[in-house]
Amino acid sequence: MSTSEPESSRSPDDRCTPDALLHSAPSAGVGPEDLVLAAGRDITPANLEWARRKLDSEGPAAVEKLLP
Fold this sequence. Notes:
Blueprint: H1 32-38, H2 45-58, H3 61-66
């Protein structure tokens, strides 16, 4: 959609999420499943083990390195 299009012609579904609502880490903490999904991987035993090791070495900030 062009930015020159009038606001009134936009669909209600075409609105942006406010920055204050955007966040990458869950409020309850980052778990291995979160890290696996953030990496775009399937949840498998091997990927969960990779995520556990990464969280042990880097902490919750590990997920921040994967997300913009």
